[in-house]
Amino acid sequence: MESEAHMAGGIEIAFEPLSSRARGGDLVVFVGDDLALSGTASESLGRPGAELVARAAASERFKGKSQTALSLPAPAGVEADRLVVIGLGSEKDRAKTDWTTLGGFTAGKVGARSARVLLDWPGFAGNARDVADFTLGARLRSYRFDQYKTKKKDEDETGTALTLLVADPAAAQAAAKDAAGVAEGVILARNLVNEPPNVLYPEEYARRVSELTRLGVEVEILDLARMKELGMGALLAVAQGSAREPRVAILRWNGADDATTPPLALIGKGVVFDSGGISIKSAGGMEDMKGDMGGSAAVVGTLHALASRKAKANVVGAIGIVENMPDGNSYRPSDIVTSLSGQTIEVINTDAEGRLVLADVLWHVQATYKPKAMIDLATLTGAIIVALGQDIAGLFSNDDELSARITAAGEAAGEKVWRMPLIPAFDKAIDSKFADMKNTGGRHGGAATAAAFLKRFVNDVPWAHLDIAGVGMSSTPSEINRSWGAGWGVRLLDRLVRDHYER
Ligand code: BES
Ligand code: MN
Ligand code: ZN
User: Which of 79, 90, 125, 355 has the smallest set of CB atoms within 10 Å of its CB?
Assistant: First the structure.
C-alpha cells in the first residue's frame, strides 16, 4: 500500500545527546518571552550568536510568543544553514506546553530542510513521553495526500530529517518508537478518509484492512452471503442501492497476558460514500461524503497503532463498510427492515443510514465478543456540527465512568469531546407508528435522537458513542494536519487503551 516512509509521515527522526556537536542543516533553538537561551543553546551559539539573536529579535519584533518563530542566517561560528528561533511564550505557557502541536509547528518551520533541534530551554521540563509527543506532531505535520497529483505536488513539504538533541536519547528513542506507531495509525486513518470512493469501495477497504494481519492483527471479513445468513437486515438495506457489495471487517488485537480478558470493542461507521440514497442530498458539498467512513478509519488506525506498539490489551475493532446510493433497488422511505437484533425499523429517511449500519454491527459485537465496553465512532449527524462546531466531538454514553475516561483521554491527546445528554425524551422521539422504531426523530435534537437509536442496540454493555461529523475532516489546516482527513480518534483511543485497558 504505502511506502514505509509515507506511512511514518515522510520524515526521519534521530536522537543525540544535548552535548552533541553534530553539524549541518538548520539549527532550531527555543526561547521564552524573555528571549533567554538555555545553557546548551548559548553554548552552541556562542556570544556573537546570542547577540545576533537579540538584535534580530528586536528588528523583527520577535517577542518569543508561543507559536511564533524567527529565521536567520546562522551566525558566524555556528555550523548550520539557518538558525530558527521558536517562541514558547510566558513561563505559564511553557508549563502547559502542548508537545504534539510544538512538534508540528517546528516541523512546519523547518520545512523541506533538515535540522538539528535543541530540545532545551530555561525551565525545560520535558520527559521522554513529551519528546515522543513532539515527534508525533512532527510526523503528522509532514503528512501529505498528493498521490493523485501528477503535476504540482503540495507545497510546504516538510522535513527530510530531524535530529533531536535531548538529555536522554535512549529513553526518548524508546518512547518515540511507540509514538511512530501511533503516527502510522493516524496516517493510515487519514489515507482512508482522503481516498475517493471509486478507489476505496467496500471490498477494497476490506482488502486494505486485511493488511493489518502483517502486524499480528486477526482480521475476519464478513461478506454479503454471511451478512445475509446472520440477518443484518438494517446494514444490508443501506447497501442494497449500491453496485458495490458491503463488507463488515472485524479486527482483533489480543495483546493482554490473559487471553480470556474481555475485550474493549471499537465500532466504526464506514460509509464510503453517502449520497443520501433516495432521500438524496443536495449537490453542494456532497463530495465531502467520501469522508463518511471517518469513524471506521479511526478504528482501523487505532488497531494499527496498538499492534505496532504491542499494546498489552485485548481490543476488537468492527466496522460496517457500505455505500449509500440511489437506485431502482435502493431501500426507500416507508420500508420496514428487520435488524440483526430482531427489532424492526421503519425507514423515514434513507439519509439516516449510519445508525442502521451501526445497529447491526453493535448488536453483532456485543453478542459475539461480550466486550467490557463498546465505543462507536461515526460521522453520524450534521446536527452535532451545528451544536459543537468542528473542534470538539459529541459524546453520548450510558456509563459515567467510561464517559469520564474518554473525556480525560481526549483532553490528554488533544482530541476533545463534550458529553451530551441521553434522556428518555430522545428515545421516545424514535418510536414508530408501524415498527419498533423509526430511523429519524424529527428536526429537534438530531444528534441526540441518533444516539438514542444506537442505544437500542447495545444491550447492557457500557457504551459510548462519539459523533465525529464535525471533527473527522477539516479544510482548515492545523499545526499537525495539512490534509483534509483528520484521522480523528486514533490518538484519543490509543491514549484511552494505554491509560485504562493495558495489563
Ligand atoms: N453522513 C451524514 C452526516 C454528516 C453530515 C457527516 C455532514 C459529516 C458532515 C449522515 O448520514 C446524515 O446524512 N445524517 C442526516 C440525518 C438526518 C437525515 C436525520 C443529517 O445529519 O442531516
Ligand atoms: Mn446520510
Ligand atoms: Zn452518513
Answer: 125
